């Protein structure tokens, strides 16, 4: 089972936007949607684009490389349901975002 790792401060996230962090040897994309923090594997399963740098809209992120659209809550991919991004469990501990890695 994955351990929760501290990855960022809640204040580092802006509503409706994503960021990419590097933790435990991997890229993680963090998003704040409707006040809730979500995490996806930071690398797009299509061509390896940085999901945390993608355009966010209506709870989805568009990969900046080729535009694939992922639900930040679940990782589901609209264009290719068989190629989701990995959704990672998140918890908030005080002001620290922790992600199961």
Short descriptors:
Rieske Iron-sulfur Protein; four-stranded antiparallel sheet; mainly beta; globular; 101 residues; single chain; 46% strand
Describe the structure.
This protein is mainly beta and 101 residues long. It has a single domain, classed as Rieske Iron-sulfur Protein (3-layer Sandwich). The protein is built from no helices and 10 strands.
Helices, by number, come to: 0
| CATH homologous superfamily (4th level) name | Rieske [2Fe-2S] iron-sulphur domain
Tally of domains: 1
Question: Overall 3D geometry?
Answer: globular
Largest pleated sheet? 4 strands, antiparallel
What does this entry show, briefly?
This protein has 101 residues and is mainly beta. Helix content is 0%, strand content 46%.
Secondary structure: elements and pairs:
Blueprint: E1 4-9, E2 18-23, E3 26-33, E4 36-41, E5 55-57, E6 60-62, E7 69-71, E8 87-88, E9 90-93, E10 96-100
């Amino acid at each position: 089972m994955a351990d929760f790792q501290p990855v960022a401060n809640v204040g580092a996230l802006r509503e409706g936007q994503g960021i990419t962090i590097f933790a435990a040897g991997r890229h993680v994309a963090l998003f704040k949607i409707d006040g809730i923090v979500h995490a996806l594997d930071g690398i797009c399963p299509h061509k390896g684009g940085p999901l945390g740098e993608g355009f966010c809209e209506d709870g989805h992120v568009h990969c900046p490389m080729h535009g694939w659209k992922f639900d930040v809550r679940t990782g589901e991919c609209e264009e290719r349901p068989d190629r989701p991004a990995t959704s990672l469990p998140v918890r908030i501990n005080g002001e620290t975002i922790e992600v199961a890695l």
